[in-house]
Amino acid sequence: MLAAIGAASIESLYGELVPEAISTGAEKIQFPPPMAEPELLDHLRDLASRNTAVTQIVSFLGGGCYEHFIPAALDAIVGRSEFVTAYTPYQPEASQGTLQAFFEYQTLMARLYAMDVSNASLYDGASALGEAVLLALSVHPERRRVVVPFLLHPHYKAVLHTYLKHLGVEIFEIPECNGRTDYDRLRNAAEQEAAAVVVAQPNFFGILEESDEFERAARASDALLIAVADPLSLALVKPPGEYGADIAVGEGQPLGMRPYCGGETLGIFTCRAAYMRRMPGRVVGMTKDRNGKRGFVLTLQTREQHIRREKATSNICTNHAHNALRATVFLSLLGPQGLLRLARLCARNLALFRKKLGEISPSALVHSVPAFRETVIRLKRPARDVCEKMVERGFFAGVPLDIMGPSYEEFLLVSVTDRRKDEEIQSFVNALKDFI
Q1: How do residues 371-393 score in pLDDT, each as one tens digit?
Q2: How far, in Å, CA of 313 to CA of 224, rounded?
Q3: Which of 151, 261, 277, 307 is deepest in the core (most CB within 10 A)?
Q4: What is the reported pTM?
Q5: In which domain, by residue range, is 258 found?
Q6: Distance (Å, rounded) from C-alpha 197 to C-alpha 194?
Q7: What's 238's DSSP letter?
Q8: Is the dihedral of CA 122, 212, 341, 348 positive or negative?
Q9: Which distant-in-sequence residues (6+ apart) come within 8 Å of 276 by Cβ?
């Protein structure tokens, strides 16, 4: 193979990737000799024993990836071999189980978001937003502006900038005002020929926006309204379809996904029926075979690797199928009442945290407006330093908000989910005393 490609050695292939100091110099990596399987297992156990257990650290991390209750039955169901090993359903006659699961997922997402149609999932919430904006630009090809709130998740904004980098599209940010979007500036910006107006509900600070303000701004300029909505919050607050959203996307991680290494992600994408053929990914439909039996098929596949070729609406050509299955099973196990109870526990626990912190230091609470699951607190030193100190006290304290800019260096985003017990919340507040 080396001769066929004209390479002198294996090392020459990796020369640009591996620093010379560790490939040929004094720090060259010395690999151990091969081991028999029993020896290798012992060696791996020894390495694993050196890990520091973090299971006793109480987490108040959030910022897009959350620790929520997951029914024990979920892993038992989705871990079955027919789900884990299923391949993409190109042949419907051999993929009825997978296709039915996608169909159920689409139905649940459409109902949850109060929208007409859902696709069979995307990668994550950020890429779903990028695809939603591309859809809006295809509806208004003459317009070159997208209006987004400053309080949209910074990772979502970064992905959106990547999507639009070479398309000559202006991403116009609306500043915040007391933890919410400045609605006066929103209306002025949207009037200037915007293709889309984006609302984050709740926003990155966990605060609930006045969604009707975004709907009015979008309608005034005939722009598409794109809602980035947390799916768990929709058990409590008005879903996007009820405040006029044309497209609604979200991150499905709270629906039965574990917060491992940044989270198992799921891109939720729903829209009005009028835009279905512009939607990225694929749509599963239910039909009947020639014998009158129910069957499931890929109804729409607007992907470049299928018949659409250069006419494809998106170059996304796969999905997070197993995570979509997790969300489907999660919602099925909880049902509407279970999902409502989960959301209420999050709201109740956040209210308790705000109350306890306010009793110690009212000035530490930055906002008093309604919020869901998260809130911002003010510290008297850089939040990153406080987070390091809080680990020593047994807490992951939250997400430092310096990612929003240097003026937010002493602000911390704290997430309080259904998993936090009253005594953990009280202990956390007590541990914060020295820093607020």
Answers
A1: 999 999 999 999 999 999 999 99
A2: 17
A3: 151
A4: 0.88
A5: 72-331
A6: 7
A7: -
A8: positive
A9: 116, 117, 283, 300
